[in-house]
Every structure is written in structure tokens, then in C-alpha cells.
Amino acid sequence: xxxxxxxxxxxxxxxxxxxxxxxxxxxxxxxxxxxxxxxxxxxxxxxxxxxxxxxxxxxxxxxxxxxxxxxxxxxxxxxxxxxxxxxxxxxxxxxxxxxxxxxxxxxxxxxxxxxxxxxxxxxxxxxxxxxxxxxxxxxxxxxxxxxxxxxxxxxxxxxxxxxxxxxxxxxxxxxxxxxxxxxxxxxxxxxxxxxxxxxxxxxxxxxxxxxxxxxxxxxxxxxx
Length: 224
Hints:
This protein is mainly α.
């Protein structure tokens, strides 16, 4: 039985028209978050993190130096963007595209955001996972109980401000200025939230608290 081969001739395919619709603020928010994901999942970003952890002393938490140094430790070190968040940077580059009338392409915007990282125009700082979460929560509340001292940030974020000033949204400026103001008059008390507090309960009528024996251990002893 002979093989039958059917040949089909394809004409030139039409050019693919990639468009991102940003008709509402919700659309814009989704677009910026997609750009964030593209950046974080890129090989270039992973290579940057590897470089920082191995050659720029980003292998331990800025506040708790012992966290992260032990290779066998389960504590992870995360990279925090400050004073501009990755969302702020992506949103600013997006605004540049909109103001200049450049067709919005999330891959191109993510590439420019990544380029800013490699040009050292982005502020970064290594934190333990717990401290990282605490800082983000504090910033959302606006109380700045936990914050990142600007003088400890690696990267020339001022250069980012100089080159992208006209594209930075006012609310972003306000948040950044608020963080800078917090850091102007730092004292040891400014970091009280990071101090470990041990509390001893003095129970009325009980002079010494006795250790409660584990019943399971008692059973094991009896069986033996």
C-alpha cells in the first residue's frame, strides 16, 4: 500500500497585531501585574538574584545577619525592592509607553524593567521571608512600623527618578517621599518592632511554674 501525501500551499499569513487594551484602571493593574510576573520568572532576573547572593553579600538578612548564612538553614532570603516596588517600576515604564504613544507590549516593557535592574537603577535589599512580609504589610497599612532604611538599599534609585520623573505617578511619589521622611530621623528606638521581647507571666498564688510532664513520655516509660 503506497503512502498518500497531500500537499497544501499556504499563502503569506497576515501580521499578528498584538494589542493590550487598557480602558479601565483594573485593566492597567492586571497589565502591570503580568509584567511583574514576566520579570520575576525571567532567566535574566534569576541570574541577577544569583549574582547578588553570591557576589554582593545578599546571602543574609539585612536586619538579622545570622539568617541565611547557614547553608543548611531552612530560612530563605528574599530580595525586596525599595523605595520603589517592582510594581511601581513596571507601572512607570508602562506610563512612558502610553505618554510616548508606543504600542503597549508587555514583553518589551518587562525587558526595559529588567534593563533598569542591570543598570543598577533599582533599589534592592536582602530580607528574611518574615521581615519581608512584615514590611509589605506595614507599608500597606501606612504605619511604617516596619520599614527599609534608605541608606541600606543597594542600587542608585535616584538615577531612576531623574530619568523617569515625568512618568512616575503622583501616588507613587507620595509613598516614596513618605518612606524617605521616615528614614530622615532614625534612632535606635525606630527599630523597636524588630527587638525580641520575652514576657514572663507572674501568676498569683504560684511562686514557681513547674514543667508539665508529657503524658506520652510517661506512658512510654511505664511500658518499658
